[in-house]
Amino acid sequence: MASNQERQTNPMLVPGRRLPKQRRSKETVRLIMEATIDLIEVEGFASLTMQKIAETAGINVAAVYSYFPNKHQVVSELNNRLVQERYVIRNQDYEGILQKDADWADAYAESLRGLARMLDEQRGNAALTRAMYASPPLWELHRKNHERVEQRMMDFLDKVDPGYAKGNKVRAKVLASVISTVLELSQTEKDVDAGKMLDELVKLVRNYLKSC
Amino acid sequence: MTGKQKNIVDPLAVPGRRLPQQQRSKETVRSILEATIDLLEEGGFVGLTMQKIADKAGINVAAAYSYFPNKHQVLAELYERQFGVIYESQIEYYQKMSQDPRHWVDIFVESLGDLAKNRMNQRGSAALRKALHASPTLWDLNQKTIQAASRQFVPILERLEPDYKGDQSIRGRIVVETITTVFDLMQTDEDEDPEVLFNELVKMIDSYLKNP
User: Fold this and answer.
1) Above 0.90 for ipTM, yes or no?
2) Which region among A9-13, A99-103, B120-124 has the lowest average model confidence (pLDDT)?
3) B127 near B75, Cβ under 8 Å?
4) What domains are defined for chain A?
5) Does B171 contact A200 at a Cβ distance shorter than 8 Å?
6) What is the pLDDT of residues A21-36, one digit of tens each?
């Protein structure tokens, strides 16, 4: 009974998902992801239902439930896919900066332009960010993503700036938080000029790194 | 029934709140707000109900409803009182910035120390900031507060640096967002010393504003 209660309060803990291995199953999950993006872009997360996902994907609702026990976990899977895609590309960015002779602070700050472009181009990203703001279990997920970003930035700073060993963690935390606040803002708020905002963010990050 | 529906759509739009003029009513509102802070600190936003607030405040739930139609509006009132105000001291700093022989950025950065102290000493501010992500309506309120603070800061930037090449409104917004983000980090990060985080904020704002 107690665990049932916990299941009710935290939809992320509901078991029952199986990951598809076969090509046809993968295709079904892909359809579910695409339908979910379409729906949250138009209506947001609050009015999303498993039934609507099934209808938009053109499949039976039982098929949706066979992969995901609830809409939170559908959105969680969508998040994991987008995060993983960014993870791979950001790792390449970091490697590139480490190998270049140019000033790393300049190179890092400029690399944020690529990150902003990627966030912009990933379909469903802005709607997903908004959904995460609105649901405590999804916000938890968002925080976990963020911790991973912090950790990676810390590792990068350690390699690129070995002289600054002490306090590196703090620097990475402050940087990661400010960067994600500003980039999310450009994504979610329509009356903000995203290009100009990015210019100012690059300036902020570059000057800060050089003052450390 | 339609009224109930509306509740779900935008709890802040539900009418029915009246602001108390009399001493005794003010005292009741104060006890409601204090009880809400206690409950937020104990269990967060999710389990909060008007009944629990009334019980904690030692008043009848009908009395609580006579001031606030729902818990969102209790939080909105708390939020307004804590983050919707501009401090006298901040206005004094703003005046000082155009008169003092020191660089205006040094004075602005000095003002952040007072702002941080106010925020950290405000009872319930950390719990209230955490609740932002549990309620989309509060999140909107937060965005509006940040916009208002930016709007206040922008004319000051324009007066102090009329020749600035970039967009001052975006510059102001970046500054306010950065301060808000690091203050939140200071209140929520359990591993880092708030003072150390604050020093990074100072470095960030100082290097950004001094190198346009």
Assistant:
1) no
2) A9-13
3) no
4) 20-67 (1.10.10.60), 72-211 (1.10.357.10)
5) yes
6) 677 788 999 999 999 9
Q: Within a 13 Å sphere around the CA of A205, how many CA atoms are in the beta-carbon half?
A: 28
Query: What would the CATH number be for the domain defined by B84-210?
Result: 1.10.357.10
- Phi, psi angle pair for B84, to nearest 5°: -90, 0
Q: Check B207 against A178: CB less than 8 A apart.
A: no
Q: For residues A54 and A72, what is the distance between their CA atoms, to the nearest angstrom?
A: 15
pTM of the model: 0.85
- Crossing angle (nearest 10°) for helices B88-99 and B136-160: 20
Residues contacting residue B172 through CB under 8 Å, at least 6 positions apart: B150, B151, B153, B154, B157
B72/chain A closest Cα distance in angstroms: 14
Could you tell me the two tokens for A192?
A: 């903000």
Indicate the DSSP class of residue B86. P
The number of angstroms, rounded, from the C-alpha of B121 to the middle of its chain's C-alpha atoms is 13
Which of helix, strand or coil describes residue A119? helix
Check CB contact under 8 Å for A133 and B182. no
List CB contacts of B20: < 8 A, sequence separation 6 or more.
B26, B28, B29, B67
Q: Residue A204: name the closest of B174, B129, B15, B23 by CA.
A: B174
Which CATH code is given to the segment(s) B2-78? Answer: 1.10.10.60
Q: How many CB atoms lie within 10 A of CB A136?
A: 19
Please calculate the CA angle B180-B186-B188 and round it to the nearest 5 degrees. 100
Which residues 6+ apart lie within 8 Å of A207 measured at CB? B204, B207, B208, B210, B211
Take residue A106 and report the two structure tokens written for it: 């300049």
User: Using a CB-CB distance cutoff of 8 angstroms, which residues of chain A are in contact with residue B136?
Assistant: 46, 133-134
> What's the CA gap between A128 and A132, in Å, rounded?
6
Q: Which of residues 69-128 of A touch B (CB under 8 A)?
A: none
Place of tokens 């990627």: A118
Write out chain A residues lying below 8 Å of B180, CB-based.
Answer: 181
Q: Return the domain boundaries, chain B.
A: 2-78, 84-210
